[in-house]
Amino acid sequence: MIFKKSVIETMQKRQSIRTYETQKITTDHLKEINDYFNEENNLIGPFGKKGQIELVEVTNNVTDKGIKLGTYGFIKNPSAYIIGITENNQYSLVDFAYTFQKLILFLTELGIGTCWMGGTFNRNSFEKEIQLDERRFIPCITPIGYPKQKQRVFDKAVRLVVKADNKKSWDKLFYDANFERTLTKENAGLLEVPIDMVRLGPSASNKQPWRLVVSDDRKVCHFHIEHTPNYSTKLGYDMQLLDIGIAMCQFDLACQELNIKGNWTVEEPKINLLNEQTEYIVSWHLKS
Ligand SMILES: Cc1cc2nc3c(=O)[nH]c(=O)nc-3n(C[C@H](O)[C@H](O)[C@H](O)COP(=O)(O)O)c2cc1C
Questions:
Q1: Whose C-alpha lies nearest to ligand 1, atom 13?
Q2: Residue 76 has what DSSP assignment?
Q3: Which domain holds residue 126?
Q4: How far is CA 41 from CA 4, 23, 256, in A?
């Protein structure tokens, strides 16, 4: 078992951390992280795609190879970075995000701070540090380190700008049988907690683009994205696909903790979409 504590409680506690203590990650923790990386299952997502992760320690943001890893001042005193690597297609990105979020929760449980980063880092500097074959790229990274209690004014400002503490309410995200009716917490049945964990997950610029439709009998849950137009066009990949992988991970891990068994399928449901920006991605089925 990867998680020793309640992963639902860990999801409730997790926050993006941008300022760290100067203390290095302990050798015990580094060993636990390495063991986690060496377990192949931890790197494979629900669609069976395998991503890659690499840990690079830094001192004053400089690696052993002498490369300065840049985050435009967003991150202070990281002990190391974990670099994500995958192929640039829909299911690889979704799978990758699922596994990366699981890793983030594993680190959170250890008391290690993280911050998903898809945009505000210098990709060139990170690419120099690792061996990238030409089919792969870096969708995101996270700094790691022990969270500093006192945040910088800068961190507070970032949280304010993206409204990080403003998680959307159920009626903006979740739907009952079709997109015409919203789903209430009271009516969600068995899936109430897993759905609420989707709501608490991190997302790029806190856009929370996930839209879930739960079937009448509460046995199926369809995951959609409501795309923010042109959100990451300049970066050459769809960053909001990562948000969906995160949502699937939060949902799945909550189900596992609550002993609710189910599996993932792709089967375009016959429901009218919310709007032109909405795209169907995947469905979760309760195992009877
Ligand atoms: C895919 C993805 C990309 C992100 N990219 C960045 C980034 O480039 N820079 C940054 O400071 N935060 C980034 N974040 C962190 C979000 O801003 C943060 O998750 C959101 O504001 C919610 O706050 P919370 O994680 O504390 O719940 C990213 C998050 C995700 C999921």
A1: 117
A2: B
A3: 7-157
A4: 17, 31, 15
Domains in the chain: how many in total? 2
Calculate what percentage of the chain has a pLDDT beyond 70: 100
- Helix 192-200 to helix 240-257 angle, to the nearest 10 degrees? 140
| In a shared domain, residues 180 and 277 | yes
* pLDDT at site 288: 79
Both tokens of 216, joined, read 């009448």
118 lines ligand 1 (CB under 6 A): yes
Give the distance (Å) from ligand 1 centre to CA of residue 216: 33
Judge if the beta carbon of residue 258 lies within 6 A of ligand 1: no
What's the CA-to-centroid distance between 203 and ligand 1, angstroms?
6
- Predicted TM-score (pTM) above 0.85: yes
| CA 117–ligand 1 middle distance (angstroms) | 6
- Answer yes or no: is 2 within a domain: no
Question: Quick one: 110 and 180 in the same domain?
Answer: no
Q: Is the pLDDT of residue 86 over 90?
A: yes
The domain that holds 42 is classified in CATH as 3.40.109.10
pLDDT in tens, 208-219: 999 999 999 999
Same domain for 17 and 146, yes or no, is: yes
Same domain, 17 and 102: yes
Task: Measure the CA–CA gap between 49 and 62, rounded to whole angstroms.
Answer: 31
pLDDT digits (tens, 9 = 90+) for 48-75: 999 999 999 999 999 999 999 999 999 9
